[in-house]
Design brief:
The protein is an alpha+beta fold. The radius of gyration is 30 Å and the shape is elongated.
Length: 487
């Protein structure tokens, strides 16, 4: 059987986060549950109505292009893309073809630069709701600003699809251009894929896969198409250029229609909208408005805080958590050890803060569908908590209890430690009692230790921790156990 090499390109649509729709004053509200509520004569295509371009949507799209290193058309225009579908009220879509706003950018993923051919702006269609006795149309989404980004066929494996879509979604969220929630249809990934014999440079017949509702589904669709197309060719069949749909239930793609070309859409300039013109000064202003981008934060967090790659990725992927981490770090730079009164090692404190944020606070945030800035736990309180944990004032076990109390009350760690008796026992005379009781209640474990089984000591430390209700200093407990057992 011949071996085939895949070539993959992506078309990604993202609904932009604006107050109103692209060409009218109807609200752009993805959470509206009442069907056909956010509509008006303009987005419904009533005769005699005129569109007015939403400049905020245009600026958002251009900022995305600038972040991706695209060149921006200083003079662009909209066009009519003509096709009939029940969810398209005008019978055409206002889109762009000849002069998209942005061209020729790139996004680096998996060690390779994926070239971006174009980014253009159009209006979204409505939503079809299939029922047992027919199909209903909800036009709330019709006319919502829709960004379309088209890559060159630079991706070579399904995991590249995941990496690109994930990084682009992250960028859209950093720029606040889109929430890019695929479950709500705010971002849609379409996979263009072909295979060619190994050693050949001629591209194969392209198939476009639509109806993909998650990034993981896009990866599965790419995997399936590579296998399907390779099998067709190995069996002597012929591939046709077509649009296929992803079927989540079967885990495969199904043919929908042969692929249209641009001529089928009969593009022509939109007569009711003037060209959109940008000056150099306006583009410089948009460029200056860009925040720190995901890849810039990734590099800075690793360099500035010395965090492991896994921690950095979490703090970059969850921007609000990363922002909170930086607020905590800012507080930590001014914190002293509450026990010794001396300054702590900042690098170690930063790593401890990241670990507690990711391992223990993030699950609470996820369960509450919240971000740190919406909770009672302030950065100042969390920084104080980190210092007390690092100083040994509370044990790791009691620290989890303390964090829960901080989350629930927003009170100070100092007050909660006293109120709930959470302070770690590090006094040798007090610890000796727990150590002696643990030895007295563990004859077999003691015998194992004296017989040379070092692991038995861990069991005795655990016993000390249990007797002290988690408040004993485990390092001191181990030292005192060794001393008592050596006597």
């Amino acid at each position: 059987m011949a071996e085939y090499i895949p070539t993959i390109g992506l078309e990604i649509h993202a609904e932009l986060k604006t107050r109103t729709k692209m060409f009218c004053d109807s609200l752009n509200d993805p959470d509206e549950k009442r069907p056909n509520f956010n509509v008006c004569p303009v987005c419904m295509g009533h005769p005699g109505t005129l569109p007015v371009a939403n400049m905020e949507a245009i600026r958002q799209l251009v900022r995305v292009g600038l972040a991706l290193g695209c060149s921006v058309e200083k003079e662009s225009f909209f066009e009519r893309k003509n096709y009939f579908y029940p969810d398209l009220p005008k019978g055409y879509q206002i889109s762009q073809f000849q002069k998209p706003f942005c061209r020729n950018g790139a996004l680096s993923v998996n060690g390779k630069d994926v070239r971006i051919e174009r980014i253009h702006l159009e209006e979204d269609a409505g939503k079809l709701v299939h029922a047992d006795d027919g199909t209903l149309v909800d036009f709330n989404r019709a006319g919502v600003p829709l960004m379309e980004l088209v890559t060159h066929p630079d991706l070579s494996e399904p995991e590249d699809v995941r990496a690109f879509a994930t990084e682009l979604r992250l960028l859209l969220r950093y720029l606040r251009a889109s929430d890019a929630d695929m479950e709500k249809g705010q971002m849609r990934v379409e996979v263009n894929l072909s295979v060619r014999p190994k050693g050949s440079h001629a591209l194969g017949t392209k198939v476009e896969v639509k109806n993909i509702n998650s990034i993981s589904a896009a990866v599965k669709a790419a995997d399936f198409e590579i296998s399907r197309q390779s099998s067709v060719l190995n069996e002597g069949g012929t591939l046709v250029q077509e649009t296929r749909g992803w079927d989540e239930d079967s885990g495969g793609t199904v043919s929908q229609r042969t692929k249209e070309g641009s001529a089928d859409y009969r593009y022509f300039p939109e007569p009711d909208l003037p060209p959109v013109v940008f000056t150099d000064e306006q583009l410089d202003e948009l460029r200056a408005s860009l925040p720190e981008l995901p890849w810039q934060r990734r590099e800075r967090f690793a360099k500035e805080y010395g965090l492991p790659a896994g921690d950095v990725e979490v703090l970059v992927a969850y921007k609000e958590l990363g922002d909170f981490f930086e607020e905590v770090v800012s507080e930590l730079k001014a914190e002293d050890d509450p026990v010794t009164g001396k300054a702590k090692s900042f690098g170690k404190l930063a790593k401890t803060a990241a670990n507690w944020l990711i391992t223990h606070l993030q699950p609470k945030l996820h369960a509450a569908s919240a971000v740190p800035q919406d909770t009672k736990l302030t950065a100042e309180r969390f920084a104080d908590f980190v210092v007390r944990v690092e100083s040994g004032e509370v044990s790791s076990t009691k620290a989890q209890e303390l964090l829960h109390l901080l989350w629930e009350t927003g009170d100070s760690a100092e007050h909660l430690i006293k109120e709930h008796d959470l302070a770690q026992v590090s006094d040798a005379s007090e610890m000796t009692r727990f150590v002696q009781d643990a030895i007295a209640q563990s004859d077999k474990v003691v015998a194992d230790y004296k017989a040379g089984k070092e692991a038995a000591l861990k069991a005795l430390v655990g016993k000390v921790m249990a007797l002290s209700k988690g408040k004993a200093n485990p390092q001191l407990a181990e030292q005192l156990l060794r001393k008592e057992l050596a006597g």
